[in-house]
Structures are given as C-alpha cells and as structure tokens.
C-alpha cells in the first residue's frame, strides 16, 4: 500500500480574506481540499440560521479550483440541542443542503464529506452525535472525518486515551463500515493555540513530524490557514498567529519537499 494524504483547509466561509487565500492555495499549493461552514457560528455577526459567508466562499473556490468538492463543516450548538436523533440529523442535513445549493449555483461539484467544527459531532464538547452523523453520511453517500485510528489526533490527550472514548470510537468505526461510510485512516492537526505553537519553526517541525508518522492508507491533515488582518486578530485571539503560520506553511518549500521526499501522494478524498 501507499501513503496518501488529504491536506485540508477548514473554516472556509467565515472570513473573506481567508477564503481568498484558501482558494488560491487550492489552485497552487499542496492543499487538496477544504471544508465550508454553512451554519451560523456563535459570535459572528447576525445572519440567520445560515452562514452568509458560505456562498461567497464557494464562489471563490469555483473561480480558482472549479473541480474541488467542498466538505460540510458541521456546526452544532453547545450544550446539546433539546431534540433527539431526528432533530440532530435534520440539523446536519440542512447544512449539507445549504452547501449543495451553493455549489449547484456556481456549477461546482456537490459536497462529498462531512466533518465537525470544534469536534461537536464527536462529543468532545458534550454529547456525541456520531450515530446521527454516520446515518446521514450513509443516506447521502458522504465520507466522514472519523479516523480509524486515534494515534495521531490523540497525541498526549488524556480524554482520547480513556476506555469509554476508545470503546465509543471503535463502535462508531464498526457502524460506519457496516453502513458503507468511507473513513480516513488517521487525522491530524495542531490542536493548540498560539502559546502551544510557540513560533513558526516549532509549528513547522510539528507538521514535518506528522508527515513522517502517516501510516499506509489515506489520511487527512487539516489546518486553518488565514492572513494577518485586524478581523482575524479580533475574532481569533490566542489563535491568530498559528493560523498565519499555517498559511505560510502551505507555501514553504521545506514542507513541500518533505511531502515529496516521503513519497506521499496528495489526493482530494479518502
């Protein structure tokens, strides 16, 4: 087997400057995928239930990388919605439909996978929605960002090392396999903020080490690249430097050469 990598920019649709950078990266960097937030995110300017920036992001992507199918970056409220299984499945389905309408309007491929803003589908901030997500993915023919193995995403995380979480994860992987939902082998990112990233060289070393550790099969590394703007500094206090460093990383010849040296195939999906 070979080692393949989906290299994803998350959070498209939340900032016009970041959207332009993501679109440009998809046209001329190792970046191969992106996910779009279609639901209103708490703390953003009011815009109704849907995120008004999603259509703008899709238009940017269509101009720069018309063949890219975006992922649906699902937002769910915390604490958990009061409704049961059907309510949550409907919320997820509404976000898929919103992104599908946006891609259809510009002639882009429809969304092809589901992932989770701030881990809300996984239950990292409260109740798990894995059953709902797997059911929706199976019904819609979507892949799901649920790693088969936690060895990279769970580095030094005591929560992900607990037996309860491990059992829940194993059950969800089995359910996805039974339903025919495609999963990545592993997922990885830098989960801390500016303080944990420290500086650009340290952050780059983190991602270089991740490349070395990718197992056989198709995995995903996701980042949150963004340019340095007053809006970013205001809305991402404690995180904005890392986002600008991740933007820099995607154009760094050292990072690009390491992907090639490791013999990693860059692909758009798993």
UniProtKB/TrEMBL annotation:
Q: Kindly list the cofactors needed.
A: Mg(2+)
Q: Which InterPro entries match?
A: Glyco_hydro/deAcase_b/a-brl, YdjC-like
Keyword list (alphabetical) reads:
Carbohydrate metabolism, Hydrolase, Magnesium, Metal-binding
Tell whether Cytoplasm is among the UniProt keywords. no
Concerning SUPFAM superfamilies, the annotation shows: Glycoside hydrolase/deacetylase (SSF88713)
Record-annotated membrane-spanning stretches: none
Origin superkingdom = Bacteria
This chain's protein is named ChbG/HpnK family deacetylase
The species is: Promicromonospora alba
């Amino acid at each position: 087997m070979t080692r393949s990598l989906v290299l994803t920019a998350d959070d498209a649709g939340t900032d016009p400057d970041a959207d332009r950078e993501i679109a440009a990266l998809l046209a001329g960097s190792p970046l191969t995928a992106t996910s779009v937030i279609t639901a209103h995110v708490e703390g953003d300017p009011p815009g109704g239930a849907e995120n008004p920036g999603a259509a703008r992001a899709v238009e940017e992507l269509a101009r720069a990388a018309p063949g890219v199918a975006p992922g649906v970056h699902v937002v769910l409220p915390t604490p958990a919605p009061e409704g049961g299984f059907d309510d949550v499945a409907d919320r997820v389905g509404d976000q898929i439909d919103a992104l599908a309408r946006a891609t259809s309007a510009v002639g882009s491929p429809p969304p092809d996978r589901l992932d989770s803003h701030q881990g809300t589908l996984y239950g990292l901030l409260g109740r798990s929605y894995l059953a709902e997500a797997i059911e929706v993915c199976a019904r819609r023919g979507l892949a799901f960002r649920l790693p088969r193995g936690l060895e990279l995403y769970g580095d030094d995380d005591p929560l992900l090392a607990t037996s309860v979480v491990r059992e829940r994860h194993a059950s969800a992987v089995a359910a996805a396999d039974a339903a025919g939902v495609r999963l990545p082998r592993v997922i990885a990112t830098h989960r801390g903020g500016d303080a944990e990233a420290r500086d650009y060289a340290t952050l780059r070393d983190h991602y270089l080490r991740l490349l070395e550790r990718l197992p056989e099969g198709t995995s995903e590394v996701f980042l949150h690249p963004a340019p340095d703007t007053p809006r970013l500094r205001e809305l991402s206090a404690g995180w904005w430097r890392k986002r600008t460093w991740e933007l820099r990383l995607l154009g760094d010849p050292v990072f690009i050469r390491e992907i090639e040296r490791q013999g990693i195939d860059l692909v758009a999906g798993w």
